[in-house]
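Encode chain A's predicted structure.
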Amino acid sequence: MSTLDLNPYLPTERVTLFADVILPLPLPQLFTYRVPHDLNDAIQPGARAVVQFGRRKIVTAVVARLHETAPSRYQAKYILELLDDEPLVNEHQLRFFEWMADYYLCAIGEVMNAALPSGLKISSRSRIQLNPDWDRSGFDLLNEKEGKLIELLEEHESLTYDEAAEKLDVKNIYHILKGLTALRAIILFEELKEKYKPRTIKKVRLVPHHTASEERLQALFEQLESNPKQISVLLSYLQRVPVHANPAYNEKGIEKSELKGTGISASSLATLTKNGVFEEFEVVVSRFPTTGKAEKLKEVVLTEQQTRAREEIIRLFQEKEVTLLHGITGSGKTEVYIDLIRRALDSGSQVLFMLPEIALTTQIVARLQKVFGQEMGIYHSKFSDNERVEVWQSVASGAISFIVGVRSAIFLPFSNLGLIIVDEEHETSYKQFDPAPRYHARDASLVLARQHGARVLLGSATPSIETYHQARTERWGLVEMLQRYGDAQLPEMELADISIEKKQKKLQNGFGTALLDAMRQSMTRHEQVILFQNRRGYSPWLQCQECDHVPRCRQCDVSLTYHQAAQELRCHYCGYHEDVPRTCPECDSPKLMAMGAGTERIEDDLKLLIPEIRVQRMDLDTTRSKNSYQQIIGDFEERNIDVLVGTQMVSKGLDFDHVGLVGIFDADRMLHFPDFRAHERTFQMITQVSGRAGRRDRRGRVIIQTHKPQQAILHKIVQGDFLGLYLDEIREREGFFYPPFAHLIRVTTKCEERKVAFQAATALVNIFSRHLGPSRVMGPEAPVVERIRNQYLQDVLVKLERGKLNLKAVKEMIRREIRTLETERIYKNVRFVVDVDPV
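Encoded structure for chain A:
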């Protein structure tokens, strides 16, 4: 037995703890802070701490690890405050953050910033207060504005910078603050505000004394009998809360608004509360409406094809971490998902079901809610900060075991993941483009699953070439469902050659005869139509018919898109907009013509070509508000819309019973996009939107307008020949050394000076070539749009053979060399953006 055990009165050694914390800033390392001794027993890895960074900045950090070693390069500041009694971020998440920062070549603080809902981050707000030690005898030395600010601070405990500036009627208050700070007349400080606020409701109940017995309740009635209005309040309460049957009912009380809604006197209720008859209290409630008890999941009656798929997936999960479910549109993948989710939940595991864009998949979400009810939570960017915090807390506490979410849902605090389903795995929406981390949620989910020992099911009717290659080469499992549910037929697909009609001047506003006739026939049969054009706005550009001038963005190297409804020209890269000119800015000619067709123009043209039809547009411009997308979908389901014109939004997750025709307005634009994935993307997009045509007992029809119907890729689309597409693509990518045979890392230099951006990119090419060999480095090359937001861009592409190089070492070299360039004076204004696995 130790001396300490023998004598409990001996003093224990005072341990000085240090915490390495993650700051929500793009900094390459963790920072060490000293733990106040009174927090030694409370602080844990994963908890949030408020710390000071630099002279004035107050930020919310996350504790990564604890130790007893002081930093050697700087004096550790103290942690100011600990926000959590229990870790907000669990051990799995901390490891996941570290992996993501390492793999995607970004700072772990950037990962944390993306992961935590902003409602969980403390914000600081600069405030001004009067220095209590200031001698007012110096007041006469102040100028007018300084004196007025002192007087304001004598009336108010403190003011924000903005409040002070507004009261003084000045735009720039900093010179006033500088003078008063020098005189030590004021104190500047940071007020911390925690953004998350739980939702509360006000309730009322009888003071418990009155409900203790029938006699006391009767005595209360006798006490109030001279005041009918107060008796009315009491009776109204007792009708809703039968305390005479059970006094315990009184504890929960009733919502104050509900009681007021019965027509009672509000002043009488206030008087009764003041006199100690009633008491008010607040309770915290969820921001999410209760959907009631989940419908009892009837054993989903799977078809023979679905049963085979389910059994094969379960078998493959025994030996492989990842399985691809390749099921054509309408094959019934959702029923298989539901069955597997239920099995995972029944085993006690958590489930993450990922969708590319939650707003575009309302039908499947509604279906899942009917099955899983309150077992299921939803997580996406359309939620408010407070709503996202509540979902986070529900997952952390175990209140919710099943999450349906977009890419950011991979950051939730799962502790026992058993299954991750990534639906429509080919979608580019899973890729985060800006800001860092530029992660791909599908790829990251594989790592997340491995950390938890979970299984991943990838689902798609048109898998990405990389995913299908992994499955075909048996690294992952492969299950295929190649028949539509209930023997429904695939749509009849046809190519409409509009080049001949264009020469004969028979095209009507871009519509060929075949598509227009088919739409009129659909109207006659009372069928609905979906028309796809992956370009929003009225027209891609305006052009002067005299001098050929095209209005361009002032900040980006692109033409301005014409939006007729708003009567403006708009840049879709930076948001710059201007009024539509009446005459040409160059030659003053009034002959400005809209060139090309976006969804807005197609909508207008259809109303002229077929006046009797009801047309609605669905694109980014018409779905900006929170519920606009659901409203359009609801109107289409209720058949208040005949033709739905839209961008890729109309291709995702929709299942309508009355769509007989899908029209592809312009297939060529997608095919000729300068990207090695152009054919793959075109196949995916057209196949997905075509899947909306025809269901169950009716065969749909798809018309694809093109100027070159002889293109081989179009015939593969018409034949639904995904395997043929894959074999062609995989052969070409192997020959030209593209994924899945190579890892790609793109580094983009951005600078307001074109020459400097090019010089920085050239320096990168030279450095990377020296380390990796010139055959693995491409560039520098200007992207399709060379200037965005007044920043000139240059791309450097690094290609690395899979399995032949140490990828981790190469990434570390890239990170190191970029940091070295950033320290050079010539490149001080250059921003280096690294994108690992660009799409």
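The chain has six domains: 124-194, 199-285, 304-486, 492-539+597-722, 541-595, 742-836.
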